[in-house]
Records
---
Amino acid sequence: MESTFTPVNLPGYNSREYFVQIWNYLEDLHKIHITIHDHSGSLLLSDGKLLRLHGNIHRSGYCSYCREKFHRHCIQHCAKEAMQKASEAEGPMLYRCYAGVVEVVMPLFWQNVHVATIFGGSFRDADFAVPDSWDNQRKALYNDLPVWYRSKYPVIVQVLELLGSAALVWADKERNTLKDENSRRQIIEDFFRKKLTSQDCTLELLAEKLNLSTSRTSHVLQEEFHKSFSKLLMEARVQRICDLLENTYLPLREIARQTGMSNEYYLNRIFRRKMGIPPGKYRNCPLKKEEC
């Protein structure tokens, strides 16, 4: 789904707070929770923070219970399997996770690249046989979920399409408000943000984007940022790691995958070198990160 939404330019109506109000309104109106897994940084704003705090976390009471008890299974199904299937489907689909939760899942595309996945739920599957092995709390939380009816599907798809498209365009607009989108610096910054996890995040590809030779591109990076390509790439990866540590429950293995690191051990070594503390301490530190 390519985004075509254009924000209304009215004073006070393009703030992060106003967008979150719209998000909350749609959830209340349709009695659903909307979650967006941003696996490219496309919804990060100019301050480096997410468009909505905890907007990437499934917030129903039942999902919170399962995430606490069965963290690895939740990550496997929501952060990997569901997003992969949505990408392959190239459109909205109905998905039931290992825990019996039914959700409408839709991939969000930006410039023909699958950059995020939006979920609408959580519902109880009336045909799902609750195992006797579940404890009473889990059974009660599952039974509290609204029952899924097929008639809800087209409405939820429309809601997800509206909010997902708006979120992508609004975040892009906010980041570029004071920038020239055609400037070399902006092209370079967008390149690192969008190509962070790709195998083709290379100096040669950046040179193609700038219509320059590789040697000239290296000079441009020094002129604009006073840094080499490899250093800029590593800084972008570490910044994205910080974002994921602060705003998600993803394990280091998955964060490594989403930031182009070979594995969690390499991530840990690089992060400690750059930040001075291990990623686990960064994630759990209650103080300002620079004071940890």
---
Amino acid sequence: MQFFKHLLSKLQANQNVYLLTVIQNSGSSPGRKGFKMLVSEDGFIYGSIGGGVMEFNLVEATKKLLQGKDHKILFKKQVHRGDKDHGSGMICSGEQTVVFHPLHATHIPMAEEILAALKSNTKGVLLLTPNAISFSGNQLEQKFDFQINNAEDWIFKEQIGFTNTLYLVGGGHVSLSVSELFVTLGFHVVVFDDRENLNTFEQNTHAHRKEIIDFQDIASYIPEDSQTYVAIMTNRYIDDKLVLSKLIHKKMAYLGVLGSTAKLKAMWEVLERDGVSQALLNKVNGPIGLSIKSQTPEEIAVSIAAEVIKVKNVRLR
């Protein structure tokens, strides 16, 4: 979301901007499909198309384009080894294709539409072609849809919107830090708690949605799909157990519980006695997060993020 906030801000300031987008990659290319970068005529740069000398050279070329009057849509293939015509200056293998779209004040409505879709957690399609850029309220079956025949004949579609949602059940200090980190990672973040006037819940300005609920009803608030990630971190063992018992039968991408090994061992034993199978318990991540000896809420948030990212990216293979 921050990317398009910066774009809108520059367009509203009447700045000419180039949007650089990676529309194809292969091998060990540092830039992946959908990587984006903004370069505005006042020198502002945001985002990345892969980094390194390749990115530096393309940014410098973009700055020169902005200094002129002829702001064309460009198509550049970058080969990251041994190609004189398209060489990127990098020695890693692989290649990527980057397209350059000039944007100006007339694109303000498009930027506003994209931001509105992101804020409301709805989806749309960003369409890039050799002649134009546009955004619509359509949806794709997958994240990207593209066809590249040559520099003058190609099309690239990207699903814009939050693909994954993280539900935090519990609004304490760890939840606050996790919310802040996961928003920067591109997740739609929802926080639930059952306590009124909880200071950390009220201080959480990062989450896209917050709601005070009865944990008995938690199952009705969390959908069962492959884009759902759930982290249980209430302030009481009994509530953690209650929430887990309500959600453990649902199919989702990730389900984890914050707590010590001893606490979760006891919880598992109780749930088994209540009839929950070992197969279901094995699907639960607990203690939540990678083991990095984290201590502070911020460190715990990093460990949780690392585990969720690992799960998410393994699923995408």
---
Amino acid sequence: MFISVFDIFKIGIGPSSSHTVGPMVAVHRYLDRVRGLAGAQMDAVRLTVTLHGSLAFTGRGHATDKAVCLGLLGAKPDTLDPDRVEPMLQGLQQAQRLAIPGLPEIGFSPDKDVIFDYGPSLPLHANGMTFNLLDASGALIDTFVYFSIGGGFVVSEDELRKTTNAPVNELAVQPVPFPFSSAREMLDMGRDAGLSIAEMKLQNECCDSLREDVEKRIDTLWAAMDSCINRGITQAGILPGGLKVKRRAADIYQQLIREGRSNPPFEHSVVDWLGVYAMAVNEENAAGGRVVTAPTNGAAGVIPAVTRYYLDHCPGADQAGVRVFLLTAAAVGGIIKANASISGAEVGCQGEVGSASAMAAAGLCAALGGTNEQVENAAEIALEHHLGMTCDPIAGLVQVPCIERNALGAVKAVTATSLALRGDGTHFVPLDGCIETMRQTGMDMMEQYKETSRGGLAVNIVEC
């Protein structure tokens, strides 16, 4: 199975890839469907969108209702200016109508027509969305279900039934020279071809694109990640949502600057740099800013933090190394997605921050010259020590414990890399076995610990 680096890493807006980016993508897929209904849409006067499972339980905190409205207004996650969000939503609230290109004007009340279903999840996945198109009498013209399966990926019922977590139609499997779908295959192919993981991944990406274009797009991804860090370390104030969580990255960053990188008060101050980079990204995400899913928004801070650590703190680091980092990280992320899940609503935070930490460890190990076997070892170490991690956001907001959790995920990634580079790549638990363990653990995990805010910290901490 081939999952592109540009599918694993997507530029979007916060606070959630599955609850914000995915629903916006689903809206556009549904509108394309309606345009093809051979004239039936001309009778439509109303549209409703019902959110099921985790999309309902944490939808308000994750801005899922706003994402649906923005998608209906034509916004796309990769191009939407975050500063336009509130004016667009206010305009819809006043108009109560949708003027969708290619369709008649349709009535739509954000307060009534985005429906939160707090009953059981739909059978196939925790993140379901049902679209209903109605005529003047209230009769149903069309109904369709999409699932947001993590990382901004959206599939229909048929697509989800065919294969778990398969790429959507436009990301369908294509012939590539190195079609590895497991870590074992990845290592075997690399050994047979005498190529690194990044070199194999790059050749796969270049099947339908020029190398210079692929590298330019990778550089654009890193520029977006780096820009998010830089914005996050300059912003102060209180994050939206009602928890009154204070942004801390900017203050910590200024403390670190005053202390100086060359003469830090403690040897472990490098951990502070990792933490501030990660927190800067996730504070931006929590505020609805522009981030890169890596592989999700809730875990968006880990990979940028470790990449920035590589550039700022590792001798000999350069842009070529960043490309190696991101290509390798994407290769590991694709294997995890294909064989388990990157959705917190499906397997808990082990699938989000755990996956991001494994990807970051693999990327850093490769950028620092690690062998393929050491890269696979680093990814396994990082993922293994996130197994069982629940997703229990307080008030359904991607803030507590999510922001700090990214900082710790980044630290674990660097630690995993260090351990792997001190060895020769041989180790006891293979990455494939760890990924399968994560999948099984996620299936066994009780629903209240999978992004529903009905268990864990979400119910044991008084919201202030």
